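Exercise: predict the fold of this chain.
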Amino acid sequence: MSIASISRLIPILSGKGGVGKSSVTVQLALTLSLLGHNVGVLDIDLTGPSIPRLFGIESAKIRQAPGGWLPVQVHERGEEQTADGTVSRGALHCMSLGFLLHDRGDAVIWRGPKKTAMVKQLLSDVLWPRDLDYLLIDTPPGTSDEHISLMTSLMDPARISPSQKLGAVIVTTPQAISTSDVKKELSFCQKINLKVLGVVENMAGYVCPCCGETTDVFSKGGGEIMAREWAVAFLGRAPIDGEGWGMLIEEGKTPVYQSAEGNGNGTSNGEETSNGTTSKQTPVERDPGRLAIQYTRCSLYPVFKSIVDKLLPFNASLPVQPNADGG
């Protein structure tokens, strides 16, 4: 199925690098999946495709099918028993240039025309599942060739259907040096008539692994002030959770916090990891099929559930914009 049949398209944008767009994209995708929606993630950050690593599927390969490429499955739709009861989740699929590289350390050194051609190919040649509810699109920083190619394709009346919904989520960090650049992305959206669903203030404080208290290391409130200035919705702020989110992504361990368990390594002694083995410090092979369930134990899950709860009503009533010529 092409993107013309996907009901809701959400580019994740920012005019600043290093604000955590990919992390926000992955957590929005996991949260939507845990709410029962079928979700796709398209990574068009061609020079820094980090989505496969965040999902733990770097070794996956793209399969060719009649008519195009098949996206990589992160997990299938189904139900799973946890300590808190039964969790239902929608299917989650991913497509990224990272799957096409021979080695994850390979540099992508392309000029504008080749980037434009690849973005168009990713938008036209990926055969997404027919029952996909949301497609989240992770983008590089700035307002460059990838963004122009993406928006030109997404806002082309010949490519979209009247029932589709299109709107962007803007990601920033709290400090002024970040919001000053992210405002340029809001200006970009305004010029091409792209609806902004809201602003997420990422890295809004650091969660202490000992007591759970949040410290505002990058100041606080910059994203909310920016959203107010530009008359767009403020979706919420997400802190840095190195102990929970960091250990889940880097080591595949289910988050267990010191403040709850009282031990010093961030996980319970002999905790079961995502591959079913027990380990205290040794890195483990992650099981992407368990990622969503493990994420429910992360302190950031209720934060992003609140963000998604605010996002969905805006998205549900969003009109498709007619053009992307910047006029």
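Check your answer against the key: Confidence is low (pLDDT under 50) at residues 261-284, 316-327.
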